[in-house]
Amino acid sequence: MAANKEILDFDPDLLRNKYREERDKRLRSDGNDQYQEVEGDFTYFVDDPYVDEKIERNSITDEIEVAIIGGGFGGILAAARLKEAGIEDFKIFEKGGDFGGTWYWNRYPGASCDIESYIYFPLLEQTKFIPKQKYTNAPETLEYIGVIAEKYGLKERAVFQTEITDVTWSDEKKLWNISTNKGDSINAKFVVHSNGPLNRPKLPAIEGIDKYQGHTFHTSRWDYKFTGGSAKGNLDGLNDKKVAIIGTGATAVQCIPHLGESAQELFVFQRTPSSIDERNNKDTDESWFESLQPGWHEKRRENFEGFLTGSFQKEDLVNDGWTEIFRTILGSIRNNAPSKLRFAYWAVGGIFSKRFYRLGLKDYMMEKFIDYVGKENLSNQVEMVDFAKMEKIRARANEIVKDPETAESLKPYYRQFCKRPCFHDEYLKTYNRDNVTLVDTNGKGLEKITEKGIYFDGKEYEVDCIIFATGFEVGTDYTRRSGYEIHGKKGLTLSKKWKDGISSFHGMHCRGFPNTFFFGPTQGGFTANYTHSLDEQSIHLSYILKTMKEKKLNFVEASQEGEEKWVKTIIDKARDMQSFQESCTPGYYNNEGKLNTAPQNNVYGGGSLEFFKLMKKWRKKGKLEDLELA
After folding, report:
1. Which domains, ranges and CATH numbers included, belong to the chain?
2. Which of 157, 180, 457, 596 could form a disulfide with 184 if both were Cys (CB 3.0 to 4.6 A apart)?
């Protein structure tokens, strides 16, 4: 079962060496410290450019049943599911001027979702909303978030333009006190923390970043007053401007075509190229959509998860770039398996975990299959499929980009899931424009920023504007990303509690922090279709609070035994692929090349579907097991 070089279109040994060389040139000793916090002189990078006027109001002193922190998909799903459960005494606190979360902030031209809209949009059967295309864009996503808010009456329960500054438990009152930057002091019985994993922009700590005299902004705070145009492009304000954009990740891939179309001159500064596959978006067939039978949405979401988590699927309902990746891997392995064995290839354990790429097979079938093919042969075969896929990605750059040197610079030399794969049909074409220049830093990053522009490799690029497409903080402390500290029982802070590793029950409850619910990927079931995970957490939250209300309970906290068992489960379920991650080019998947060694800082290792089923089974028992109640 070992790969035969004579029948391959590539040399695996040469590729392994090339991957290693490309990784090594990008390794840095500073890891996440290469980015600086957006504070002090840089706070303007997180100002809200989308509000017409700032809200001026009196401070709120109130007592409510549930406080929901965050108005993105997680927050509005929590609110919607609570309303469905008959719980209506809640408020949603959001620092933006409206609902949307990630989609409120990321309004850059070309912003869109790479997950099919029919599964990415939650509550579609409830709202009867029909997405216009297979892959939605930012304006439609914001529109749909408004549809959910309208259906469930969430606007009147929202507190916008308000940042949480502190959350403190009162042992005396048995309530949480929430402080804000508006001077509010709200007491709440329960608090839901739904801050989102991508909410804190990061800037590169480049020498001279504070010296530049031109215009600057981060892609998550796009300045249309400067660029003109809209999310659809037509950035006519840049027609006479020289522009630089730093970064070539998923955000940059979407906005660079619009910048190239409008700017007088565009310089794209790249450290590591993204993997660019076909997107092939298409309009929705409304007659097909309206013919879907009740229950179609959950079935389609689970079908997608099945491919991404290795659960056997007879049919590919979504049939897109994501599922194609896993169909290819599964098909290749299946051809070498005895017919009597059902197997699964399990990958994409968690985009924000520190053990992202995992190989395994389900339970006893895994052992039988590995005994048959041998673990080394199986791993080798998966690697060959990955090599072949990435060779096609690299060939696509050759086919589309006219200049051979530029095409070579745009080729990703790493395994498919070392970085988030991108799907786009215009990005590579942009480099055929005469006004667009790719500045490949060969993995080094920039040298410095001057008063007039960017200096690299002995040349100063004078520009009118620098755009930072440098992403968001991932892997830093929870309280740093959320922007506030949480003080639990007897003054215990969450920072101290999680100093040596995250500890929770089901990723949602944390001992020492009663009546608190955390939304997010860590120690839970994460999927690339993140709204599915958030919806499952919202259903779980509403079940617990509804059950407590029915039983006249006011207090819930993870038991010591329950939390310890769950942490052990996370560790036991973690498939340690440290060697794979170490071989990857640095990025936020592998904590910029500095792997997190705390095994509990992971998602649930059995995959999202297994986790969702585990939660359903737990709810079905009706006992609220491993929670302390009063």
Report:
1. 61-200+474-629 (3.50.50.60), 201-275+419-468 (3.50.50.60)
2. 180
